[in-house]
Specification:
31% of the residues lie in helices and 33% in strands. By secondary structure, it is of the alpha+beta class. It starts with 7 loop residues before the first helix and ends with a strand.
Length: 152
């Protein structure tokens, strides 16, 4: 994606400043006292607006690709807090979802080549897993990680 920049406004401002600079010596003292702060104000406004535009462009950048290869991927929210993490370790790949306090609330992993799903709430958790033979297990735990119920 190519963005064409509109250079009309900056070119007009630069031309205006150059013309003021050329005529600066010919102006009377009152006009010189008014022109210099005005030029400084315009320059500061242009720099600040460009920084704001760069900040927006960095926050809203979109990357289009067909393939990204990474071992660990973290997805951040607009405040820079990690909300989703994917770790692709050969022995145990994991997908974790975090809440706003960076507490893991949902985890999906492959332990011993069998899928495991853990959902954690404020006062307990549920674990759905498959053992080495492929049989499903469901375990409910309270907030102290003691087992409330389990099947089978």
């Amino acid at each position: 994606m190519i963005n064409k920049k509109d250079w009309k406004k900056p070119a007009a401002i630069i031309l205006f400043v150059m013309l003021l600079g050329g005529y600066y010596e010919k102006l009377n003292v009152e006009a010189q006292a008014m022109v210099l702060p005005m030029v400084i104000f315009i320059a500061v406004a242009v720099v600040i607006s460009r920084f704001k535009q760069l900040e927006y462009e960095m926050r809203s950048a979109q990357v289009f690709t067909h393939k990204i290869t990474v071992e660990t991927l973290s997805v951040l929210d607009s405040n820079g807090n990690e909300r989703i993490a994917i770790a692709a370790a050969p022995e145990n790949p994991v997908l974790t979802f975090y809440d706003k306090n960076h507490t893991p609330r949902a985890t999906l992993d492959l332990a011993h080549s069998e899928p495991t799903l853990k959902l954690k709430g404020g006062k307990g958790s549920i674990l759905i897993a498959f053992d080495k033979e492929g049989l499903p297990n469901v375990t409910l735990k309270d907030d102290t990680e003691e087992i409330i119920w389990s099947a089978p």
